[in-house]
From TrEMBL:
Full protein name: Rhomboid family intramembrane serine protease
Recorded coiled-coil stretches: none
EC number assigned by the record: 3.4.21.-
One family name in Pfam for this protein: Rhomboid
Gene3D superfamilies: Rhomboid-like (1.20.1540.10)
Native species: Floridaenema evergladense BLCC-F167
């Protein structure tokens, strides 16, 4: 299922959401400018390489010009291809503005980056000795989804599936998405050669972890502080 838009209007201009999308696009344009060998070197520098992160946590030098922990932030702005970038930015475009409105611009940025860091650590925990760079905004965006499902569970999501367009409530769409990520994350523990980060595929634990951390952090940061918005738009399916 592919989300196309939500019926959940905002009254603010989501500057942070727009800025994050622009930053991700600019980073990808830079990636495209690099020849393959330099691109691989750049990924090893700016993406999370779990065994190097593990070494840095153990106090072992990794011969990198910047502290290894900073890759937990820089990796959030890197993508492995057009489909990877477009998919992530679509989700951020649809769901980010509402969460930004609920939290406020500054807290939303802090929330977004924190979710990305915690999601990266969740994936690292399950593949501490992997040498494959882990990158992408998915973990941070998963945190946004975790906040969205709490704040706007009944918001209608226009969804494309197969040849059909239909509306589904956010709790169904995002709940199903989370269950899928958790399922594949568990499966990857038993079949690391086929799914998960060890194969250079999708970092499912970053997705599931980001979603859970988002659902925990957002209320702490004031997700429900302003309940004055009229919720009547979301009462009918």
């Amino acid at each position: 299922m592919v989300p196309l838009r939500d019926e959940n209007p905002t009254v603010i201009t989501p500057y942070v959401t727009y800025g994050l999308i622009i930053a991700n696009i600019l980073a990808f344009v830079y990636e495209l400018s690099l020849p393959p060998q330099q691109l691989q070197s750049f990924f090893h520098l700016a993406a999370v390489v779990p065994r190097e992160l593990s070494a840095s946590f153990a106090g072992v030098a990794t011969n990198q010009p910047v502290p290894e922990w900073t890759t937990l932030i820089t990796s959030q702005f890197l993508h492995a291809g057009f489909a990877h970038l477009i998919g992530n930015m679509l989700f951020l475009w649809i769901f980010g503005n509402n969460v930004e409105e609920a939290l406020g611009h500054v807290k939303f940025l802090i929330f977004y980056l924190a979710c990305g860091v915690l999601a990266g650590l969740a994936q690292w925990f399950f593949a501490m000795q992997s040498g494959i760079p882990s990158l992408g905004a998915s973990g941070a965006i998963a945190g946004v989804l975790g906040a969205y499902i709490l704040k706007y569970p009944n918001a209608r999501i226009l969804t494309f599936f197969g040849y059909f367009l239909f509306y589904v409530p956010a709790f169904f769409f995002l709940g199903l998405w989370f269950v899928q990520q958790a399922f594949y994350g568990i499966a990857s523990l038993q079949t690391p050669a086929n799914v998960g980060m060890e194969s250079g595929g999708i970092a499912y634990w970053a997705h599931a972890g980001g979603f859970v951390f988002g659902a925990i952090l957002a209320p702490i940061l004031g997700l429900f502080a302003n309940q004055s918005r009229n919720q009547s738009n979301f009462e009918q399916f």
